[in-house]
Specification:
Elements lengths: L5 H9 L8 E12 L22 E3 L5 E5 L6 H18 L3 E3 L23 H17 L9 E6 L2 H6 L9 H19 L2 H6 L4 E3 L13 E2 L4 E3 L18 H4 L6 H13 L3 H4 L28 E4 L8 H8 L3 E7 L11 H16 L7 H17 L6 E4 L1 E7 H23 L3 H14 L5 H12 L1 H19 L6 H21 L4 H7 L1
Antiparallel strand pairs: 1-3, 1-4, 1-5, 2-3, 5-10, 6-8, 7-8, 9-10, 11-12
Length: 518
Amino acid sequence: MIQDISEKIAWLKINPKMLEGIFRGIERETLRIEKNGNFSKNTHPHLIGSSLTHKWITTDFAENLLEFITPTSNNIDYLLSFLTDLHRFTASKIKNERMWPFSIPYFCNKKPKIQIAQYGTSNLGKMKNTYRKGLKNRYGDVINTISGIHYNFSLPLFFWKNWKKDKNKKNNTDYVSSGYLNLIRNYYRFGWIIPYLFGSSPAVPSHFLKNAKKKYKFKKNKENILYLPWSTSLRLSDIGYTNTNILDLNIMFNDIHEYIESFKKALETPSKKFFNIGLKDLDGNFKQLNTNILQIENELYTQIRPKRKTKIGESLLEALKNQGIEYVEIRSLDINPFSPIGISKKQILLLDLFLIWCALIDSPKIDKNDFILVTKNWERIIYEGRKPNQKIYINNQNETKTLIEISNIIFKDLNEIALILDNNSNNLLYQTACKEIKSFFQNPDLTYSAKCLKFLIKKGMKKTGLFLANKYHKKFINENHLNLNQNILEKEAKYSLQKQENIEKEDILSFEEYIKMK
């Protein structure tokens, strides 16, 4: 069922330096809200800087949907410290507002008025805004305000160069890409472990179910919040943020060149559904960037995806084609409401272990039938992950094993990897995290979703969310004198505003001409 990797782990024990130099990055989304819990009606605060050009603080879909982006680093403590400083800095500039601590936005019966993110008058800014108009017209606006954590992860090039050589690969670029695709396929097969452990969206406002297929019988609390007793991450379900199914696009993560071509096809293929929306309104304003299946590369929403830093004017697919995969982006993490910054060190340690494990385990190529089975497992964990004696499919629909059986196998390997990483840094951090989190399978009440649901049922989403938002805001304000990056962030805020102004002055093309060139 799961490959025995004792020989591979033995190789790592002999060569522990192979795992030195893991780089990570975090992107955290959070809604700005008023003190009463309503969506903020204010534009992106000028004092924070330009959402178009700021390196670390921008907006996602909505004007009040902040996105914090850390630099990449091989130091976990620095990463978390920088992310904390971004929160402290922002809290000091929005003293009359708060940051919502959950992935799922709160509203009662009345749908909130949502302003799509604005990025100024430049063609680049208009393009970002038009893309978001397209998202609204294609999928709705409330669904686009769901927040998450993206975790970027790369193994050292030294690891890939010394890993099992594949004679069929012509160069290191192809080999590294092949290794990351192996990791991605394993993440799809076993990555349901992440929403089981860390899923924090077991409930949603009733509005989310208005147009959704009701596969399960939901319960309702007194504030009209719907929940399932065993659910983990409804954000990842078809109730939450989903779009065109990658099965329909035939994107399988088996070969980098096939991946690029199938992705490119989705970007270039017209969609009848989106054609019917129309490209422009009656006044000639764009309603979406185009009427293709995907407007741009970012519109493909998956649990994990291959990434590479791009040069100015270069698309992601061009970068992947020219230089291969540089890192992977994990997109299946809910906001951790028990952490002021939405993610904890313990989670990062576990993610490191699991992603290394995904790289070590051999992963057969995946086809549509495999992917259907994978999708069923994810769905089972998302909707009923904490159900007693829950089972998932293994290899085929006739073979199942319990989560406890599978977790025992996986965590045995994770603990061995933890020992190697701890020996490298002369501490017990990874082993401690591994031991603690493994207990979540024996006792599902320890999972984040179980803890969340307990609060949401007893105290309600609004009351719990405001309590945490105010608690964290007070903490950030009181600690802002500890902000080691205060001067850097103040300078970046001013610089970003000037940079946006310069971009707007340099435009010479009309927006329509600009769009045609993209």
